[in-house]
Amino acid sequence: MEMTAQRDVRAKQAANAPKNPTAWIIAVSCFVLIGGALFLYSRVSWQQALLYVLGAFGGFVLYQAHFGFTSAWRKFILYRQGEGIRAQMVMMAVASALFLPLLIKGSIFGHSVAGNVHEVGIAVMIGAFIFGIGMQLGDGCASGTLYHIGGGDTNGVVTLIGFIAGSVIATTHFDVWMRMPHVDPISLIASFGAWGGFLLQLVLLAVVYYVVTVMEKRRHGKLLTTPLERRHGWKTIYKGPWSLLVGALLLALMNVLVLMFKGSPWGITSAFALWGAKFVQLFGVDPTAWAYWQDEAKRQALANPLYYDTTTVMDISLMFGALFLLAAALAGRYAKPVQWKRPTRMTIGAFIGGLMMGYGARLAFGCNIGAYFSGIASFSVHGWIWFVFAFLGSLIGVKLRPYCAYKN
Is the distance from CB of 406 to CB of 142 less than 8 angstroms? Predict the structure, then answer.
């Protein structure tokens, strides 16, 4: 009788226990990834399908390595922990080495290849500075916002809404900022030659790496590293977590593949402006009258279905179809319910942060991916200017975070 009663109790507990959604998340992730790739292959091209898969791969890497730009800068600003920034410098160095032969040749697979090299001026400085503040208030950069949403962070949804709104606002008077004082695009390769530009790039990256290292040792007496949960064998591949160094190397490889098959490096935020423009069209607004959309390629993107836009395709795969959703399921990170309730101050901060990032990214020709990562990897002075001013903005953003209920 006693054993029967115990079995009944255990059966009742098992019936009432929360269900682990791992199985359906894996199924949905695989369906979106495979189905989306097949759809793009049939409707657009095999290159578009491949870029969709690469976007998912990028999300997988970001999630598994916890590779953040916002958090890395914040940890250094507050605690002088520079592991994340050092990983970024390694990523830039590897990407630069991989980009170099492609940029010199200027073509591959029968199509042209060009880096993200943009003009430098007041708009870029102010835009990057605004973005730096916003990424701390929104608790995530462009890539971080997308993979946080996929990881079940509802705060990221609010940030994304603000991101799109800010992008749309910037496009309405884009020409005003473009008339601000500026100089033409400057490429280290064009200015100093292939080897001279490459060596100067490595020196700049090494200086940042060295300064961060010295400041960390001065504060802590040694370099601090994030302890990783021990996982043995091949399960580490899909359960993670991975080291930041592994993440850096894989993201560099991913970006060069994007450059090869897309013809330009990885970017994220131009899609947000496109989504916003498509949305306002539903209410009878004509965004083609705005300065930002006077460029023929942008007007064509606005006229075409969204699945023709490569940046949109990669953003969607990173956020929804992505392997990082699968990674979250396989690592058991969806075992806990999604937290829908957030402090009101945090929600407001996330929206304002997204608004600032969306606006700033349009002014500065990109975000932490398009301007910072891809810009520097393309040997663009614009990328380095973006880094400096976005970091300065983050100094202020970090100070404002407690007012938004963040605990840093």
Answer: no
